[in-house]
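Archive record
______________

***
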Amino acid sequence: MEERGATPPGVRRDEDIALDLMKFVAVTTGYGRTSSAGAGFQAGGESKAEDYARHLLDLYGQCLAAVQGKK
């Protein structure tokens, strides 16, 4: 992991920019959120938290690739 002091002041790393972009997209679009159909127990293997985390990690990867200029 890089030290914070390694980058000059005022310069942001691609990872930091991608993280801010991911947060913006996720909050404004509701990316990865699943709507709950009803109350009570729900069948399924994965929890909503795990599914949501997977969506956010995927979105972060897409944002990082976009910031770095990859396709």
Summary: Residues 48-68 form the longest helix (21 residues). DSSP finds two helices and no strands in the chain. The CA atoms of residues 65 and 71 lie 7 Å apart. The mean pLDDT is 80.
